[in-house]
Amino acid sequence: MQKYRIAAGMLGGLFLSYSAMAQSTNLAYATGEPRSESIIFLQKGNVLPPSAAPMVSNAITAARSGKTIHLVGRLDLAEAVKQEMIRDGAPASAIVVAHEPARALPRVDAVSESASRTVAIKY
């Protein structure tokens, strides 16, 4: 009889832990985590390429509608994107720059060079 009580207690604990995991997953989305993320590759001289225009435009629209825009990347690159967004009409108070330390990538080719020049736009 004691064996059945222990087994029932363990089985009940498994069901409770599963439901707690499901609730915590829903809670993570309710905290305002970014739902959209774009990565842009800046050209030399911290210049945004024309291919980044739609992503930046969408972020500006989101900033105007009250969302907080997070720019994550090297500080100089993220600041360049922020200034471009402000020039195009995004409110400065809606843009948060998160500095990401530069990664030590070998500078062997153009791909490794451009990989170190990325900025993620999250909102």
The string of secondary-structure elements, in order, is HEHEHEHE
| Strands in their spatial order, largest beta sheet | 1-4-2-3
What is the approximate shape? globular
> What is the level-2 CATH architecture name of the largest domain?
2-Layer Sandwich
The termini sit apart by 56 Å
Class computed from helices, strands and strand pairing: alpha+beta
> Which topology of the largest domain does CATH recognise?
60s Ribosomal Protein L30, Chain: A
The fourth-level CATH homologous superfamily of the largest domain is: OmpA-like domain
Which CATH top level class of the largest domain fits?
A: Alpha Beta
Compute the number of helices. Answer: 4
Q: Give the percentage of residues in beta strands.
A: 15-25%
Poorly predicted tracts of residues: 14-30
> What is the domain tally?
2
Overall average pLDDT:
77
Work out the radius of gyration.
Answer: 22 Å
Helix content range? 40-55%
- Major β-sheet profile: 4 strands, mixed
Number of strands: 4
Record keyword descriptors for this entry:
alpha+beta; 4 helices; four-stranded mixed sheet; 60s Ribosomal Protein L30, Chain: A; 123 residues; 2 domains
Write up what this structure looks like.
- The protein is α+β, with helices and mostly antiparallel strands and 123 residues long.
- The protein has 2 domains: 1-33; 34-122, 2-Layer Sandwich (60s Ribosomal Protein L30, Chain: A), CATH 3.30.1330.60.
- Helices cover 49% and strands 16% of the residues.
- It is built from 4 helices and 4 strands.
- The protein has helices at residues 2-30, 53-64, 75-87, 110-115, and strands spanning 37-41, 69-73, 95-99, 118-122.
- The protein has a 4-stranded mixed β-sheet with strand order 1-4-2-3.
- Strand 2 (69-73), helix 3 (75-87) and strand 3 form a beta-alpha-beta unit.
- The radius of gyration is 22 Å and the shape is globular.
- The model is unreliable at 14-30 (pLDDT under 50).
